[in-house]
User: Which sequence fits this backbone?
């Protein structure tokens, strides 16, 4: 993994800093956002509500957070 030396980025949507590989926002196809917001946008695009998005992100975090 070469991710260790990556500078932390600030997500323009939620303001959280992250080192993980950024996601490309679907809003303008140019903005780099954090993986969480990327997941939210993807879920929203298939009609998943905010509450369900939170549940899914919670599951992702329990699996992948260090
Ligand atoms: Zn974000």
Assistant:
């Amino acid at each position: 993994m070469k991710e260790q030396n990556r500078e932390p980025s600030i997500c323009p949507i939620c303001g959280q800093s992250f080192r993980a590989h950024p996601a490309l926002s679907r809003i303008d196809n140019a903005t780099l956002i954090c993986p969480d917001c990327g997941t939210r946008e993807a879920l929203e695009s298939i009609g998943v509500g905010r509450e369900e998005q939170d549940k899914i992100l919670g599951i992702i975090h329990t699996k992948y957070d260090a």
In short: The chain has one domain: 3-64.
